[in-house]
Amino acid sequence: MDADAALHRRTYRQVLADAGLDDELAATLYAVESDLSLNAFADDVAGTLAALRRRGVRVGVLSDLHVDVRPAFRAVGLGMTVLLVPPLRSVAERRLHRVLALCGAEYGTRR
User: Fold this and answer.
1) Which of 4, 8, 16, 52 is geometrically suited to a Cys-Cys bond with 57, CB 3.0 to 4.6 A?
2) How many angstroms separate the most distant Cα atoms in the chain?
3) Overall average pLDDT of the 30-43 stretch
4) Which domain of life is it from (predicted)?
């Protein structure tokens, strides 16, 4: 469901409607759930990632969230190179080979 933002929104709103919530409340709850400024990292995340960067440890984040997580990282001073892949039409589609190619890795290896 997170692989498609429109599907995520429809599903979330439908679940809330099925629970008896009106459209306005469902829309408000969805907006809050999708607002990264209201879903902060744990207190030690920024410091941990910064320390890893200083040690030369390269960290990548793979996300299929229905919202763009890059602003959350920038807000704590952790900008990153980003590879945007086209939205999935199906969860069976494979796109992460593009990430592996950039890292010089092959699927299933521990390099």
Assistant:
1) 52
2) 51
3) 83
4) Bacteria
